[in-house]
Backbone:
């Protein structure tokens, strides 16, 4: 995400290297580059111009303290301004109603249906809510089916009336149904068109008026750049929505939408979508996003994801196995599964400070563990639990079975061996010294 923009900003800050103080003269070139980087990322012209003016006002004349280089100081100012531009503090959704009604709006293909499912799943698993999904698309039967598929995946009921052509009625009936059945959140997925049109706007405005949602969310595809901002404006003029959902931030987006939307419609971005799966949803934190845009990584989110996936019981089991020298490839596989649950590799790497930049030319596959898993799956259960029995003949057979090269099998065996030794060392009496050495 945002690789291009981070790169360009990084270059812009380099211009200041070697200067002791930020002056009107030496900062001009840097700011020109910052502005160009923003424009290239599809940030609105006026926003980019105002942005650099504000940064300049803050930067000029500041004495650079001993520990900070002027470039670093400017990065900090830019980071703070970016955070402000994207909304300051993170904004939550209003769940005060009973049921709380959430109306989803946006163009067709923006990711509305997918996000409705993600939000229902998020509220159900993380907020202990009982959500009901409502299919209000009266034009495309496929859209209703799609929501039913999503609902089934996450175990959430989907309310629909395939024969009814009145979305206002469907939404109202759904809310009645929710009250009768004890659902405390109702998420209404509406019809979208390929472009903003009057009929769609009137229809959703009518639904909005009739059901008085606690929260109206506008879903937009971040890949559409400036268009995203224009569509947001059109929807906001009619619906006065409460928040924005930016989808497809896992893709190769240039970042312009994330940066511009808040200042154009003055509504916060509340969530982001980072993949097609139901758990690819994140709360939007402007400061973390600013850090990612500047290539500073997002360690906080990374640690949070790790904590969410951390399974204490599993960890204890693994420790016992290591102590008894029984750690095998099956355990290795389950560790890989844990890491995979944290998200796709490209995203994870992007959250490590500096790594995004360092590895930008390295092709990281979404499923970076695919080959390793294939090799392990080609082993027999005995081989997996006791890797020492794998001799060259068996290695050849495993290579053939998994369709990988013998060298890859060798490499995996070696890595596994080193890892096992390392883990053993951390645990045994020597491990205590090692821990001490590392400051533990
Ligand atoms: P709708 O027409 O607005 O309801 O859009 P859909 O929910 O059907 O999504 C359109 C396409 O975008 C589908 O193929 C989704 O799988 C995909 N999609 C939705 N959200 C994301 C996301 O955050 N990341 C990626 N990569 N794809 C997404």
Residues:
């Amino acid at each position: 995400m945002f690789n291009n923009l981070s790169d360009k900003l990084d270059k812009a800050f380099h211009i200041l290297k070697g200067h002791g103080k930020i002056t009107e003269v030496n900062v001009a070139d840097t700011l020109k580059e910052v502005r160009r980087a923003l424009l290239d990322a599809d940030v609105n012209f006026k926003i980019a111009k105002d942005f650099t003016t504000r940064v300049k006002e803050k930067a000029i004349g500041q004495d650079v303290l001993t520990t900070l280089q002027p470039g670093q100081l400017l990065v900090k100012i830019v980071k703070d301004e970016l955070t402000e531009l994207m909304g300051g503090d993170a904004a939550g959704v209003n769940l005060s109603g009973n049921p709380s009604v959430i109306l989803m709006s946006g163009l067709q293909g923006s990711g509305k249906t997918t996000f409705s499912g993600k939000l229902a799943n998020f509220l159900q698993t993380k907020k202990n809510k009982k959500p009901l999904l409502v299919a209000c698309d009266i034009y495309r039967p496929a859209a209703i089916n799609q929501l039913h598929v999503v609902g089934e995946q996450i175990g959430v009921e989907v309310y629909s009336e395939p024969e009814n052509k009145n979305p206002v009625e469907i939404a109202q009936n759904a809310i009645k149904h929710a009250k009768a059945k004890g659902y405390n959140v109702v998420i209404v997925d509406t019809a979208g068109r390929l472009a903003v049109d009057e009929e769609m706007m009137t229809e959703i405005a009518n639904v909005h008026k009739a059901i008085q949602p606690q929260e109206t969310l506008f879903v937009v595809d971040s890949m559409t750049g400036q268009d995203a901002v224009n569509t947001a404006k059109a929807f906001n003029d009619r619906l006065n929505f409460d928040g924005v959902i930016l989808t497809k931030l896992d893709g190769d987006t240039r970042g312009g939408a994330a940066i511009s939307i808040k200042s154009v419609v003055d509504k916060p971005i509340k969530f982001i979508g980072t993949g097609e799966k139901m758990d690819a949803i994140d709360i939007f934190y402007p400061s973390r996003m600013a850090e990612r845009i500047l290539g500073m990584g997002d360690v906080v989110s990374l640690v949070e994801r790790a904590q969410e996936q951390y399974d204490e019981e599993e960890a204890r089991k693994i420790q016992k196995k290591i102590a008894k020298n029984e750690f095998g490839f099956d355990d290795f596989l389950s560790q890989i599964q844990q890491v995979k649950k944290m998200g796709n590799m490209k995203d994870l790497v992007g959250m490590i400070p500096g790594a995004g930049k360092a590895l930008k030319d390295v092709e990281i596959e979404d499923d970076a563990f695919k080959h390793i898993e294939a090799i392990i799956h080609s082993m027999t259960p005995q081989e997996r639990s006791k890797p020492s029995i794998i001799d060259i003949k068996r290695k050849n057979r495993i290579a053939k079975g998994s369709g990988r090269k013998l060298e890859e099998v060798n490499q995996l065996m070696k890595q596994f061996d080193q890892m096992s030794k390392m883990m053993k060392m951390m645990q045994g009496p020597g491990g205590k010294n090692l821990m001490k050495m590392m400051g533990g």
